[in-house]
Design goal:
Number of helices: 6
Radius of gyration: 17 Å
Helix content: 40-55%
Largest sheet: 5 strands, mixed
Shape: globular
Distance between the termini: 66 Å
Length: about 170
Amino acid sequence: MTEAICESSFWKDLKSGRFARMVREEVKGRTLKGPFEVFNIIKPLFAKNDDVEKLYCLFLDTRNHILGIEKLFTGTLTNATVYPREIVKRVLDLKAGAVVMVHNHNSGDTEPSREDKEVTRKVAMALISIDVSLHDHIIVGKSYFSFSEKGLMEGITEEINETISGHGI
């Protein structure tokens, strides 16, 4: 019986957002090492209201130390509208040198949609224009999908650089 009470208390605390606040504070200053670490840090943040899509950004300094983790967008069951300008505003406020975007798929399927790929390209373009790097876009579900691990970030960055150089920008 005591174990059941502790377990229900754990889930109640997790869904309340209390652990999310603790996680965000605990990781400040930590050096980010890769997508699996991001997944482990961010997974508890999706426990509260896990029936809607949310997008978090991890803001990093130039040495990949975490400056902060912020939920910037909340959507519906199947999507969240992302505005690159809002990410740029936070980057400038925090004086970040890099960003990692993370959002959830409620279905548990982490395969990126066409919209996921397009928003990644738009955010990367906006950040490149102010000399800030989008290191990764991670989709969280039953496991995770990392654009950088799958080589998609490199392709997006190359495409943007070709576009910029082709226009003499």
